[in-house]
Amino acid sequence: MRMRDEIVDYQGVEEEQGDETVSFYPPKKGGVVVVVGYALTSKKIKSFLQPKFQDLARKKGIVFVAIDQSRPLSEQGPFDIVLHKLSGKEWRKVLEDYRQMHPEVTVLDPPDAIQHVYNRQSMLQDVANLDLSDTYGTVGVPRQLVIKKDPSSIPDAVSKAGLKLPLVAKPLVAKSHELSLAYDCYSLEMLEPPLVLQEFVNHGGVLFKVYVVGDAIKVVRRFSLPDVSKRELSKSAGVYRFPRVSCAAASADDADLEPCVAELPPRPLLEKLSRELRRRLGLHLFNMDIIREHGTLDRYYVIDINYFPGYGKMPGYEQIFTNFLLSLVQSNKYEKHC
Q1: Residue 72 class from Cβ within 10 Å (0-12 exposed, 13-18 middle, 19+ buried)?
Q2: In the chain, alpha helices (H)
Q3: 241 near 180, Cβ under 8 Å?
């Protein structure tokens, strides 16, 4: 990892963000500079590289430089860290080749590891394999079934798998956040594969969004789908579609909720879960959508994992992310000296 203890010929970098041109200037000569090359969508740039974050990072000696996708990545930089969230096989190959050529650069995160959580068939497998249970509670995943084709086969497949209605249907590829709730067997044929069917778990209409940034975690409440009673289930039919439930919903942090619904999961449990998943997934940047089964005190389920989520919505993300980037540099510097 290349830390710049002295700046000689480094000028301000200008780049366009939406309708604005933003200049990034490193500290004056003598300041430490960490160069972070980023390849993000315009939407992600706007939500993530907010002015407050840029200002704090610059004061700490962190410079953000846009990666030009029209030029070979190896000809750009030099970078200390590459931050990215772009899709496509060609981009993944570019990153993998770059990682092989520049092992001294930290790529956040490895493309293959990211692909693992983009597929909902494999996304939750590490949580299921973990089978976390300790004095603070248990963490598992809802029972689920993957349907890759032929919607007419879904009712029979659900029956054979023993899944209970209602079922949450999600696209197999996690780039779409839309979901549907199917109340009866007949309506299952209306779904469009490839998809994942998850048993719906009543959870008081609230989910916990757990943001992970390296060792740091931050938890916020979000409103979710309301509980479904047996009486309601017996009278309901059809498929109901919901766009981006946890993202679009208002924060539930300040809502007047029952204590049993509002209480956050125990921090030691979340720390253990995030630490194990970071190791198993090989990722530094992700969040988990976690629910607590309504009527229980300690039974939790991970229902989704998202890579490089909307950190701009995470309280205090500026300081957390800045500390994280600096810690990567210090860690790599330490490893080189050992």
Answers
A1: exposed
A2: 42-48, 51-59, 89-101, 111-118, 120-123, 125-130, 154-161, 230-235, 245-248, 259-262, 267-281, 317-337
A3: yes
Burial of 149 (0-12, 13-18, 19+ CB in 10 A): exposed
Q: CA-based angle 12:14:20, to the nearest 5?
A: 140
What Rg value do the Cα atoms of the chain yield, rounded?
22
Token reading at 154: 């879904």
CA distances from 195 to 121, 174, 177, 198 (A): 9, 10, 12, 10
Q: Can you read off the two tokens belonging to residue 198?
A: 């998850």
| CA end-to-end span of the chain | 14
Asked whether the CA dihedral 298, 301, 305, 310 is positive or negative, the reply is negative
Read off the pLDDT of residues 228-276 as tens digits, 9 standing for 90 and up: 998 988 888 899 988 655 444 456 666 667 777 889 999 999 999 999 9
- The Cα–Cα gap between 292 and 279 comes to 24
| HSE of 57, CA atoms in CB hemisphere, 13 A | 25
Distance separating alpha carbons of residues 338 and 334, to the nearest angstrom: 6
β-strands 216-223, 195-199 pairing: unpaired
3-class secondary-structure state, position 26: coil
Tens of pLDDT along 21-62?
333 444 434 456 899 999 999 999 999 999 999 999 999 999
Count CA atoms within 13 Å of residue 184 on its CB side: 9
Give φ, ψ of 97 to 5 degrees: -65, -40
pTM of the model: 0.86
As given in the structure block, the two tokens for residue 147 are 């349907």
Q: Which residues of 313-337 are buried (b: 16+ CB within 10 A; e: fewer)?
A: ebeebbebbbebbbebbeebeeeee
Whats the size of the chain, residue-wise?
Answer: 338
The H or E element containing residue 138 is strand 137-140
Question: Which two structure tokens, joined as six digits, stand for 280?
Answer: 């198993």
- Measured N-to-C along each axis, helices 89-101 and 111-118 cross at an angle, to the nearest 10 degrees, of 150
